[in-house]
């Protein structure tokens, strides 16, 4: 809820960080950051969103390959350069615009992300599964 009005801030469902817009037409995801839950082309066992946040990736500009960008977060350090830039987007008066991300994550959500990054940003947490990827 922002300013007393309920919004859908699901980053990929709103069409912003998605390779297709709300009408289903191809688009370049906002910030060249695809936050969908589709299987990654790099590691099919992981979601595209996880790979794009934590690993360098090639941009796709309207279906054509572009330069490499990312990572947007530092596994093992919520205070690392990329992580600081990511978290600053949710702060009041941040430089992240079109639209502003201020207030889209509450303090508890930001803390959860911060702690997850600090302990290594592990993708899969089941210590009894031998197929668990090791970070």
Count the beta strands: 2
- For this entry, what is the oligomeric state of its chains? single chain
Structural class: alpha+beta
Give the N-terminus to C-terminus distance in angstroms: 35 Å
The level of helicity is 10-25%
Largest sheet: 2 strands, antiparallel
Summarize the structure.
This protein is α+β, with helices and mostly antiparallel strands and 135 residues long. It has helices at 48-54, 81-88, 107-118, and strands spanning 57-61, 64-69. It has a two-stranded antiparallel ribbon.
Task: Explain what this protein looks like in three dimensions.
This protein is an alpha+beta fold and 135 residues long. It has two domains: 10-71, no CATH class; 73-123, no CATH class. It is built from three helices and two strands. The protein has helices spanning 48-54, 81-88, 107-118; strands at 57-61, 64-69. It has a two-stranded antiparallel sheet with strand order 1-2. The longest helix is centred in the C-terminal third of the chain and has 12 residues, at 107-118. The protein is globular. The termini are far apart. The relative contact order is 0.11. The model has no long low-confidence stretch (mean pLDDT 83).
């Amino acid at each position: 809820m922002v300013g007393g009005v309920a919004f859908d801030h699901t980053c990929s469902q709103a069409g912003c960080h998605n390779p297709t817009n709300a009408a289903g037409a191809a688009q370049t995801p906002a910030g060249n950051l695809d936050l969908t839950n589709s299987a990654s082309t790099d590691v099919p066992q992981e979601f595209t969103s996880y790979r794009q946040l934590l690993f360098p990736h090639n941009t796709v500009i309207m279906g054509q390959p572009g330069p490499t960008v990312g990572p947007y977060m530092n596994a093992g350090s919520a205070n690392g350069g990329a992580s600081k830039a990511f978290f600053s987007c949710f702060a009041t008066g941040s430089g992240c615009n079109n639209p502003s991300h201020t207030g889209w994550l509450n303090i508890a959500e930001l803390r959860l992300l911060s702690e997850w990054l600090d302990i290594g940003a592990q993708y899969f947490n089941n210590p009894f599964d031998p197929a668990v990827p090791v970070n």
